[in-house]
Design a protein that fits this description.
By secondary structure, the chain is α+β, with helices and mostly antiparallel strands. The protein has 25 helices and 24 strands. The protein has five domains: 75 residues, Alpha-Beta Plaits (2-Layer Sandwich); 215 residues; 84 residues, Calcium-transporting ATPase, cytoplasmic transduction domain A (Distorted Sandwich); 132 residues, HAD superfamily/HAD-like (Rossmann fold, 3-Layer(aba) Sandwich), CATH 3.40.50.1000; 119 residues, Calcium-transporting ATPase, cytoplasmic domain N, CATH 3.40.1110. Strand 3 and strand 4 form a beta hairpin.
């Protein structure tokens, strides 16, 4: 396939297919092919025009070579990528819109008036019936307004007016449905699973393999704190599974052999082996769409207020219609009032603005689970940071391994990596990575591993009890001791590093020194947050007072707390909320999950534990805290946009009613302007809140 360069600036290039148009399959394949390249930051493919816009890093020549190498036949697009593509959705609704317009104007040109009158009367029955059914349920809502307007026009013999009203209502319904589905589809795409590797059971052993190697029928082991990657049936083990991402239920559900589990849910306690039923993720995508469309608890207070107000205004519109007719004895003026209702714009524009803001956040690799979180983010005054993996880098590194039992440091590191590899925490990842870099093979030496949240790991190696974790866990909880001849070495351990302690059979065997460097952007992000409305910045960590004080002074937090347990973080957040403040909690580990749940807005760092990401309301995908400032800014702009839209809808529609009563605007023009304003406000709500150059 050949392309030509239409326009380019540094880091961005626009290409044009020489064929000027692409099929849906070709566009999907090209989109997938380019998005999988590491140098490509983002790509947009327009199948109708053959335009491709690519944002990239690296050398221009390398990118162009990647494009030259594209071959449709060599690209296998995963099924879930095709199913989540919005191209078919756009084509479907565009065709519906064109058909509706062609049929309407074609009918007026070529169908005789008597026949058109019969067809219009037949079509009107649907709207009149819907209005009567709504009244029968004791509700006075928009269908009552539509049915009344059409019925009055038919009774008065205004066939063209009735036909025009139904045409405009039909076009409005298509546009509203199209806009809403497109927003939901874009949002659901941003919330799809992102799992690269899983533990495959092979001949009784766990083997870490890429997720695309898994087929239906395979047995996959899922450990505590991890996301379940596929739909399937539990064949072994028992676990408490958090299904809030799909069902909205806060309490975990017990799953044992024979139980069915869903992709995207999280194992909070225990571990299970499941037999994979589906591997393409489509069921997960469908469940996300359902959750977005149906979950009332994700709506912001402003959205709910708009919906309730819309329903309450319908009776007043009917009352105004009646009064207008009684006072003017002019049915046309009364119809003008009837054709203008506030409900459509209020019910459509507000949710569209929220969905669009969530979609915009996803372009910055920020996943937001609902408008409620955006509103709370905008109003938040207190922000609480975990330290490790949040204010400090998510990838701490092992600097040294100090032996306390005479064994070689590499052997001790190998044992530590074997224990740590099952648990997704930044310190554990540092140990596993260090062993990998040294080429240390750490096969399963131990029996079942037990993870004690915020403390450490306990297991058995060659029949001997082994523990690894914090000072508190190893020396106070497990009562381990330091070899007498090694006490001087222990007390001279460097203070600038974090320490991970490992003991076997109650004796300290190694101290792993881990460097946890501060994020370069941390201090600047905290300054920016204070400038945009955050009044209190707090750091809480399980680390020692010495480490916490050092980090707190460097980043500029208002308060810090050291050596805290998970329940301490949650209690502090509840205390802040009881004082009337909205609280944001940012963390990355299993031990942060209680605080993430307790906060008004829980934000997880994407490189942390899966359970933290699943419980959190928001996930920052970039390895950079700047996303928090971006999200706070988007949220504040969203609240302003909703309030501006609210005022615009009320004032514009009120103006239409006044002009209709004055006889300046006929009913069909009022309906046209009303629907046009609804569409314009909705389209305005879909615009990005931040300038494109900041993306």
């Amino acid at each position: 396939m050949k392309f030509r360069i239409k326009h380019e600036i540094r880091g961005r290039i626009r290409l044009q297919s020489c064929r000027n148009k692409l099929t849906d399959a070709e566009a999907d394949a090209l989109q997938y092919y380019l998005s999988c390249r590491e140098m490509v930051d983002s790509v947009k493919v327009q199948e109708r025009t053959g335009d491709i816009v690519i944002r990239y890093t690296g050398k221009r020549e390398e990118l162009l070579q990647v494009v030259r190498d594209f071959c449709m036949e060599d690209v296998k697009v995963p099924a879930d990528c095709r199913q989540s593509s919005s191209r078919r959705l756009n084509q479907e609704y565009w065709d519906k819109l064109i058909n509706r317009i062609v049929l309407y104007y074609g009918g007026r040109l070529f169908i005789p008036y008597p026949l058109r009158a019969v067809l219009t009367a037949a079509k009107s029955l649907k709207y009149i019936k819907h209005g009567i059914q709504t009244l029968a349920k004791g509700k006075i809502e928009v269908p009552v307004l539509d049915g009344t307007a059409i019925a009055i026009s038919m009774i008065r013999g205004n066939i063209n007016t009735a036909s025009s009203i139904m045409f405009l209502l039909g076009v409005g319904e298509i546009l509203e449905e199209w806009t809403h589905k497109k927003s939901v589809d874009d949002l659901a795409n941003s919330m799809s699973l992102n799992i690269s590797k899983v533990w495959l059971m092979r001949e009784g052993q766990e083997v870490l393999v890429p997720v695309n190697m898994i087929q239906a029928g395979d047995q996959v082991r899922v450990h505590m704190g991890n996301v379940i990657p596929f739909d399937g049936v539990v064949t072994e083990g028992e676990a408490m599974v958090n299904q809030s991402s799909l069902t909205g239920e806060a309490l975990p559900v017990r799953k044992c052999a024979g139980g069915y589990v869903y992709a995207g849910t999280v194992v909070e306690e225990g571990e299970i082996t499941l037999q994979v039923k589906e591997t393409n993720g489509s069921s997960r995508f469908e469940k996300i769409v359902t959750m977005i469309e149906e979950s009332e608890q994700l709506k912001s207070a402003l959205e709910s207020k708009a919906e309730h107000l819309a329903d309450k205004l319908v009776p007043y519109t009917l009352l105004g219609t009646g009064l207008t007719y009684l006072l003017t004895r002019n049915a046309t003026k009364a119809l003008s009032v009837l054709m203008v209702d506030f409900s459509c714009a209020l019910k459509l524009a507000m949710p569209i603005s929220v969905l669009s803001a969530i979609r915009e956040a996803s372009t910055y690799k920020i996943t937001v689970k609902g408008g409620k979180s955006m509103e709370a983010m905008a109003e938040a005054q207190t922000i609480v940071f975990d330290k490790t993996g949040t204010l400090t880098k998510a990838r701490p590194t092992v600097v040294d391994v100090v032996s306390f039992n005479g064994e070689q440091p590499d052997e001790l590191l190998r044992i530590a990596a074997c224990l740590e590899e099952h648990f997704p925490h930044s310190m554990a990842k540092a140990v596993v990575q260090a062993a990998k870099e040294k080429g240390l093979v750490h096969e399963e030496l131990h029996s079942k591993v037990e993870y004690i949240i915020a403390h450490g790991i306990s297991s058995t190696i060659d029949g001997k009890k082994a523990v690894i974790g914090s000072y508190h866990f190893v020396f106070e909880d497990e009562k381990c001791t330091i070899p007498e001849e090694k006490e001087e070495i222990f007390h001279s351990l460097p203070d600038e590093y974090s320490h991970l302690y490992m003991a076997i059979e109650g004796k300290l065997t190694a101290v792993i020194c881990i460097e946890d460097p501060l994020r370069e952007e941390a201090a600047d992000v905290i300054r920016q947050l204070k400038n945009i409305g955050i009044t209190k910045v707090v750091m809480m960590t399980g680390d020692s007072e010495r480490t916490a004080k050092s980090i707190a002074s460097r980043v500029g937090v208002d308060e810090y707390y050291s050596e805290v347990l998970p329940e301490d973080k949650a209690r502090f957040i509840e205390k802040e909320k009881n004082a009337g403040r909205k609280v944001i909690m940012i963390g990355d580990g299993i031990n942060d999950s209680p605080a993430l749940s307790a906060a008004d807005v829980g934000i997880a760092i994407s490189d942390g534990a899966e359970i933290a990401r699943e419980i959190a309301d928001i996930t920052i995908g970039e390895d950079n805290l700047q996303g928090i400032v971006t999200l706070k800014t988007i949220s504040s702009c969203l609240m302003r946009r909703i309030q501006n839209n609210y005022r615009a809808i009320m004032s514009f529609n009120a103006g239409l009613i006044v002009l209709g009563v004055a006889g300046i605007l006929p009913p069909t023009v009022s309906a046209l302007l009303h629907n046009t304003s609804t569409l314009c406000i909705s389209l305005n709500g879909m615009r990005n809140l931040l300038p494109e150059e900041k993306a």
